[in-house]
Amino acid sequence: MLCLCCRQTSAQNHRAAAMKHGEKATYDIYFKWGLIMSRAGDATFSYDKASAVNKASSQYRMLFKSTKFFDSFYKIRDTLSAYYNDSHELVYSQKNTDEGGYYSIDKLTFTYGKENTRIHSLRYTPSRVRIDTVLTVEGDVADLLGVVYYLRGLNRTKLQSGDTYPLTVAIGRDLVKIQFTYRNQAIIERDKVKYNTRYFIIDIYDEAFESTKTSAEVWIGDDDNFLPVKVRGKLKIGYAEIYYRESSGLSHPLKCRIEM
């Protein structure tokens, strides 16, 4: 097993090769209750240059917008932005939450030391500050959006079944432990298109999920972009499923896509 330092350096190199500024990818998001599967919204991921934010050089952003059907009873317009330096270290992130009439802003500022990472977590609404605290964590750490960024830094050509990748995710005043486990290569199908993928299961130690073991699954396109194609999460109230729709500005051709 690689040491943490070697693993981080390897991830930085492969992430730099997999992603380039100008990339954009759009996904369809579904929620499933029992036998009912309903399209809940769209998520658009973009990767671009950044400046003037804690010496960041790159910005990874996700915009989520609920469908008109969901807007009628729970309107969502969320924005997540993660900022990285030239070494692909997460230095700052911000989540703007606009859900069902509730508004808040979460800010995370990361400071890296020799033994641990300190995270200043700030959350406030239009009326007051709700969280203002400092978290300390050892090992790899990310925000919610950084989980995708982290996965795309793995070297797919070196993956072996059973390989595990622990990660800590900072959310508000909490540090949520998760672990990715690589299983195998897999072919999945969506809208008469097949994709060659690498399949991971995710253990998430958080009460929002129905169970800790295999709380979620992710299928990542088996080409040099290493772009997520499908994600499935087991929630207490059902399932969430995310499907790749389209992309532009990728670093490499989408060779994982198999036309039928």
Describe this structure in words.
The chain is globular, with a radius of gyration of 18 Å. The model is unreliable at 1-10 (pLDDT under 50). A hairpin with a 2-residue loop joins strand 1 (23-33) and strand 2 (36-49). It is built from 3 helices and 16 strands. The protein has a 16-stranded mixed sheet that branches. With 260 residues, it is mainly beta. The chain has helices at 4-18, 68-71, 146-151; strands at residues 23-33, 36-49, 58-66, 77-84, 90-99, 102-112, 117-124, 129-137, 141-142, 164-171, 174-190, 193-204, 216-221, 228-235, 238-248, 257-259.
What are the main properties of this structure?
260 residues, mainly beta, single chain, globular, disordered N terminus
- Major sheet: size, sense and barrel closure? 16 strands, mixed
Helix-strand topology string: HEEEHEEEEEEHEEEEEEE
Mean pLDDT: 89
Strand content: over 45%
Number of helices: 3
